[in-house]
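Materials and Methods. Structural model of N-acetylated alpha-linked acidic dipeptidase like 2. The 793-residue sequence of N-acetylated alpha-linked acidic dipeptidase like 2 from Zonotrichia albicollis was retrieved and submitted for structure prediction as follows.
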Amino acid sequence: MDSAVSLLLLLSDKKMAYHKVNADQRAQGHSPYLDNDELQATALDLEWDMEKELEEPGFDHFRLDSAAQHHLGNSQSPDLDLEPIQPSSSPKGRFQRLQEDPDYISHYTRQAPKSNRCSFFRILKVFCTALILFIFGVVIGYYARKKCPSPPTSQEPNNPQIYHEILKEIKAENIQRIYRDLLEFPRGDDDADLAVKIQGQWRSQGLEDVRLVNYSVLLDLPGPASNTVTLQSSGECFYPSGQQCSTDPKTLHSPDLLYSYAAYSAKGTLEAELVDVQYGTMEDLIRVQAITNVTKKIALLKLGQSPLLYKLSLLEGAGFGGVLVYTDPCDLPKTADLADKAFMVSLNSGGDPSTPGYASIDGSYRQNRLNLTTLLVQPISALLARKLVSIPEDTAQRDRCTPLHLPAAGKKTISLTIQSVTTFKTISNVIGYLKGAVFPDRYVIIGSHHSSLQGYGGQGWASSTAVTTALLQALMAEVRRGWRPDRTLLFCSWGGTALGNVGSYEWAEDLRSVLQRNVVAYISLHNPVTGNSTLRPVASPSLQQLAAESQSFNCVEKARCPGYNVSSVQIQGDADYFINHLGVPATQFSYEDIKASENSSFLSEALFPVPATKTEELDPSFSLHETIAKLTGQVTLQIATAPVLPFNALDIALEVQNSLKGDEAGVPQLLAVASRLRDTAELFQSDEMRPANDPQERAPVRVRMLNDVLQGLEKSFLLQQAPPGLYRNILYRLDDRTSQFSVLLEALEHCKLHQSNETVQAALSEVLNSINSAQVYFKAGLDVFETALAGKK
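The predicted structure was written out as tokens:
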């Protein structure tokens, strides 16, 4: 024990001696009295002693005071302040201070044994090197980015900001420029050259996949001379416009005379008594048949109230041999000056008559159907109708609205000559594809047309095509910035529309199996602006809510779209096949004139010769065209980009219930199945639609299953067969005046004429089965989801 204590004391004395030597050296510099060996031993001992001290925690922060940063050998100051360093005290004392004051260590850091001058040059060297490398890197990065630009960043398709950017690109002046460019294009006898021009326009906008699809079809066109009506009593001969027949070659070959005809009418000459049947309703036929035999006679028929094809089927069934069709001036808008003009109508319910139900492709069997009715049908002007009923032609009488009636006293016998000709011609459709990014196998079709007959029907085709092209232009501008719709957009310009939607029917029949599976919706741009009084939105029940919401965003003049009233009524144009044969939800926006009377429905079936300036007179600034384009664009974007299709199942059920109000026969059974349909639709809407619209519950498989169900909502409401002129899709009413199912209304009217209840019972059965089929379809959709969810659990 004593020896250990002595050893410790000896070591302590030795350390103190080392520290003293170190202190002396600091004060005096190099000592000549120390030899080299002792100096080396002392330095080694001091180094070992300092290493032991530095091994203590936190000592890395120890630093000398600024006064101790000078070289020891060069220090000549006798009053050098070394108090903070405590050189004469032992390391033990320094550690004790650290234990007593933990913050003490923070005042010190290890000093590098380098001179300030050397450190400065080294720092400057490192800084300059780093600066040069940085500048070099910036230069390389700039030129690399310039030569290889980064690809555009993908954008979220279903983004309201994207909608706004696209719709902002649609401008009235662009639509006007496209419209005028189309009118200036020289046209031949067919639309092939115009179709090629439209194809070029769409490709110039950046749409790469634009196809020209041609079909050889049977068309009924004007003959070499105009049709005529001759009064047997006086021998006076009249053209359909009311102008007296002439031998002048210019008059004989005038387009206004040649194209006043009924396409696909029977041909020949019929001399018979003229019978006034007014609007050709069931009541009118009952009244006429009660006073005369109508067999092989010629009916004087007013256009309006119901479809022309339906009324002609009644007249043909009653035994008439011919029909003169005219529009009563009282039913025309007050702004229309059409009393002295004849018009053109088509008796074709749709497609190529020589290939009914199948496409007119090479090798198809062609049926011999030169006419689609046994009636000789001829449209005439109201002016000629006045002459036939012997009304004086004074100006005051012509300006006043007086409904036309054939006097009961005295018979009028006329001779009617029809000489149109049927021939096979090629029609062209333009189909452009903008492929979807998520669901490329699901199609949203935007349909316009480029078919016209020498100005008959006005310049609606040019308005239709201009609006479609402007919408395409706005979409492609966003596509170039990296955006794409979820679903594929098909831009279609149809040929042969005026003669019975021939182009759209043939294309759809050609691709029927694909379209049945893939088409999601049809957006119609048939005739965007036919008036400037009111906005008229039409949509199938599942799209009514979307159409109404779109108006609130895009209506330019709020006074022109009050109430946002959207109806499901029959419309003209190429939407026909998609609504009635595929059960595809459809919508259409257009500006029209206010109807003059309740009989004004279906007057749009008449195609009047309209001056080329008429459209610009109705909409000189093209602001109405811009509104239609933006409304159409808004709906198109919603359907094409929404993860879940914006279709409303409950609105379909409500429409069905509303259509059953007021029916006398079969109400209990129909109301019961309609009630079950509503209950199932409500359950479907709450259990499936709402969760799927929540992004957190939007599983891709679930969304795809739900969209497949929504896509087929309206297919259950297609009848196997409907009366001529009436929609097979029973969800569409005849017009705004009626609320019941059109097929039931027709059956009840038919019962009045034939005193038979069979037609009513058959119609009730078809409607009942359609509603029940829809309810089963909704229920099956719910069952599929429940099974899928159960399997997942």
